[in-house]
Write a structure and sequence with these properties.
mainly alpha, 61% helix, 0% strand
């Protein structure tokens, strides 16, 4: 494999680092504007800026939508689990009258006619 010493390949811009004492704002903006004389590069920069900030589906809105979607997926998983647990409990209540009576007494403080209910609460 041979190395090509005299190739015509060049970077699309010139990179010359400035010495600290040689820096001026006029030179900086002059170099920056000279790079944007290329109409394709300028068009690309404007297009990317438009997509990132001004478009209806810009990156900020997209980030918020993805975050909201993840929250909704977590809520969906929670509610699916809750529905599954409630369905199991409902089947238990429907299948056995003793479980139904226990549930009614514990949750709704229901009682028979000849009973008294005492509710004991623990102090925290």
């Amino acid at each position: 494999m041979q190395l090509v010493e005299n190739s015509n390949w060049q970077l699309p811009f010139s990179w010359v680092p400035l010495a600290p004492y040689d820096f001026s704002m006029k030179d900086f903006f002059g170099r920056l504007l000279s790079r944007f004389k290329n109409k394709y590069l300028l068009t690309l920069v404007i297009f990317i800026t438009w997509l990132l900030f001004f478009d209806q589906d810009n990156m900020i809105q997209r980030y918020k939508a993805i975050r909201k979607l993840n929250e909704l997926k977590a809520d969906k998983a929670y509610y699916i689990e809750k529905i599954r647990n409630d369905s199991i409990r409902l089947e238990e209540l429907k299948s056995n009258n003793r479980n139904l009576e226990k549930f009614a007494r514990e949750q709704y403080l229901m009682k028979k006619n000849n009973e008294d209910i005492f509710v004991v609460k623990k102090e925290d």
